[in-house]
User: Fold this.
Amino acid sequence: MTLRLLVLGNSHLAALSDGWRAHPGRWPGLSVRLVGAHDDLLLQTRIEGGHLIPATAAAAEAFRRLGGGEGVDLAEHDAIAIAGCLVGLTSAEAIWAAMRWPGLPSLEREADLATMAPVLVSLPAARAALVARLSQRLGIRLARHLRAGTDLPLWITSQPRTSAAALSRPGGGARILTAVQRAGDAPALSALFDEAAHLAAAAAGAGFVPQPAATIARHILTAPRFMLGANRLAQRPDLPQPPGDVMHANGAWGALMLDALADRLRPAVPAH
Amino acid sequence: MSHPYADLPPRAFWKTAVAGADRRRFPGLVAPRFAIGPATRVATAGSCFAQHIARALRAAGCHVLDGEPAPAVMAADVAARWGYGLYSGRYGNIYTARQMRQLLEEIAQGADPDPRLVWERPDGRLVDALRPTVEPEGLGSVDEVLLLRAWHRERVAQVLRRTDVFIFTLGLTEAWEDAQTGRVLPLCPGVVAGTFDPARHLFRNFRTSEVLADLHAIHAALGRFRAGMRMIVTVSPVPLTATASGQHVLTATAWSKAVLRAAAGEFVADVAGADYFPSLELVTQPASGGPWFDANLRTVSRQGVERVMDIFLAAHGLSRLVAPECPDPPPPASDSPATDAQDGDALVCEDLLLQAFSR
Assistant:
């Protein structure tokens, strides 16, 4: 009895691909087909006769190069996972930069709320704002797109948090993350992201698989050992990400995410 | 022979000002005592019809102040659901003059928010009894409700210190008063939250003298935030959703609107820095055309709202009427009246919640 999983993804698919290739036999009874496409090309598709088919020339080219062939027969799969696709903590960073809510440690220490630059909102308002923001990310949009054409169980896996290495790197794009850490709000922001991602995914008819706890550093970052050696999504395997990349995870991260996916799939999905 | 009517302008005579007039524009109907221009800092509050005023002014490029704008990254639909952008503060609908007066007094006094005005919903979540619908998912603790109220009051105070013209739309005379705190509530306890206690929650149906006194108190309070602040008062044409007065809802509506209109008239007659805008007349007077209501005979149709606001803007030179002719009247009401939920132009109106209790 094999559980047949179709994984669709953007550049973050490479981590799952590397993890899958590096650990043959780690997931007995699980087969995985990986289909990638950059940018929003996965949305440039349609479901026709039970097949996921590219609807543009660019999507067709991506399918041919990155595992999709001429199209994917969904009936050959028992479940679908969407990898990365911008469903990540970055969306929560924007929320924190613009607002604060009761329960945040930084708010408890704020001397004068009236002069605080971020807007004070309730926790439900912040959560709703984040859910709405996530709902516009590629992964949730793709889930809605797929859900309109298939009843297969659908999961969205978290995009990896930014590497902790970014904090020590000038211009590393971690200005907000650094501020969140200093404010002591990292645990609350991490929890808010995971909760909002669950809600956004559920609204799209999907489940959400959070980032494996073992890979997380200081709540809102990824431990560098799960980012070093990350590869790009490419026809040729083992094409490394450019030096200094802090956004993409490696195969070790991918293997743990596949563990998490397998844990959710087995009780939920009948195998063939 | 001479008499006072001999030299009156055309607008003083029904024949020239109404029957023979261009009733789309109603020239002379609105003669502002003071101008609102693009640089005028305007604040708005009132019953749900007042939401149209803020929208129209913003659409005309006016400077409508907002002390509690939604965070920039909050999606518009989320912001609307959480009560952002409706008025110049996130106070929700303020249906009565007493409610407005008490809000201003609360802000001016600066006392700690009162925990007795925190209501529990059936799901255990908590809300601010003075704006019970701005947090649609409720809050988790009394402290959270009070913290957000304190922030709200501070932000409204900041707006009022900058306001040139305050536009207040009178909506209702009926309200429920909390005997423990003396506060008039925007919504009867027990409808969405709180527990109705007949010994504590007292029905009030404000009379003309009370509304007039409240309007004067509002004007005085506003002047303490910013000297010389002017007021425009208008009366919502929207009928009552329900009445607790014991009257038929039709006569209760007529009574309520008459009281509000009379009080507004007396107030404006007494106060040079105040003006009246005839929203009520433009929607409800038979001579004004129409009907300007939706099929439910309660909510004002889109055409009706546009016409009212076009006349308001035109009177202030902010916009000219662009519709080539009167829009077609809405189709006659069917045997099955439309529900408020079917209204196309969704306003946030707590009193609509009372509709659910009609049998």
